[in-house]
Amino acid sequence: MDKRKLKQGFAYFLLLYFALAIGFYFIGGEQLQFSSSDAVSQSPEAVSSVGELTQGTAVTESFTLSSDTLDKISLLFGTYGRDNTGSLLVRILDSEENVLFRQSIDVSKLSDNGLFDIRPDSPLISEKGKRLALEITSADGASGNAVTVLTGAPSDLGDTVLTVNGQTQPLVLCLTVYGSSRLLIGRFYFVFAAAVGLLLLLLFADALKKQKSGKSSLILNAVSAVVRYRFLLSQLVIRDFKAKYKRSVLGVVWSLLNPLITMMVQYVIFSRLFRSDIDNFPVYLLTGIVFFNFFSEATTMSLVSITSNASLITKVYVPKYIFPVSRALSSSINLLISMIPLLLVSIIMRTPITPAILLLPFGILCMIAFCTGLALMLSAFMVFFRDTQFLWNIMIMLWMYATPIFYPVSIIPDRFMVFYKLNPLYHFIRFNRIVILQGVSPEPRAYLYCLVFALGSLTVGTLIFKKVQDWFVINL
């Protein structure tokens, strides 16, 4: 390899890395800075109320915030089973009685023994352990035409104190506080990014040093393999892609129609017959179909990638890993084509397109790496055990039902979620759904799960394939 070109390639890679790292920081937004919102204090069971909130009544509950942000407060109201009119003023105050948030509530919209969410336009950022107060006052309530706030016995609410018109009460409001905490990766993001960049620089410097001394290096071997066999790999990918649509009238159009037709059939079944209440169900369903179809196609095609090329492998020296990798990459072309109807359906369903869509390549690349690792394993197993293809067809069917393609994850009991999350496709599809449907970056943990499953599959697949590939010729 030309040393000058190698240096240029490493330099371009480092520049690309730092550009992506800076861009990701701004696209990541709050999801990179704070954990997902969760209940940081639980509401007690309702046993009483503060009485009618008539004109001049002031209800104040002070509490300690156990998170770095306050995202919303769910409060339990009572209407005495009647239709009331008027309004309430709700304020959130800090310990210095500065107003952090205020909201007017139309009492006619409150339901008896129903929760009402007090939600600021953006999370209130505070310090963990800081005292806040929720104040509720009535401007025009009258006896017989007023609502109330339900109360319960204090349990795990700590030093929560409730006062009504300045008088301390033995009970506390039935409210649940939702908040999130600051993430370390958000605080030290650029330190972490710089450390990874420095590590890459040291690895590249070591590779250049080994090249100069003629020693072997994993990075040099990988770069050499890509440079040496890129033409062969590209030809195999093109051949596999064309072979799929050989003598087909519509050809590549099937890559567009297949996920759309599948989505329409399943949409009718699950949204009409089984009454699915998933928000934006067409996009939710199509996202699952597109990525699971890619997984199924890439692994199934790769199964026979070695056995179907036996005549070539036994006569000419060709790196054997080229064949399963080419099958996975040719399926990746279909995946990219299938993204077109997915984005079109998203636009038709008025799904917001935000800068977070730029994170989609990460989810796609992780999915491709995961399938490539499986392709290497399955193609190796197929050489020695020809029943692998039949077992894998059964496995694909079971895997489909174990993946949230057409049903919500919420139907899975909490006690089974630990095992459910061992499914790599759950994390890949969830990542891409958050980006497409919610228009935000997934939480940092989602990136970690995707990377672990992708690199884990690729590493294990490579090691297994490398260990047994010398026995292929004997068993073909």
UniProtKB/TrEMBL annotation:
It is a multi-pass membrane protein. Pfam families: ABC2_membrane. One of its GO terms (molecular function) is ABC-type transporter activity. Residues 250-468 form the ABC transmembrane type-2 domain. Keywords: Cell inner membrane, Cell membrane, Membrane, Transmembrane, Transmembrane helix, Transport. The chain crosses the membrane at residues 9-27, 188-208, 249-269, 281-307, 328-349, 355-378, 390-412, 446-465. One of its GO terms (cellular component) is plasma membrane. InterPro entries: ABC2_TM (IPR013525), ABC2_TM_bact-type (IPR047817). GO terms for biological process: lipopolysaccharide transport. Its main location: membrane. It is found in: Cell inner membrane; Cell membrane. Belongs to the ABC-2 integral membrane protein family. This is Transport permease protein. It comes from Papillibacter cinnamivorans DSM 12816.
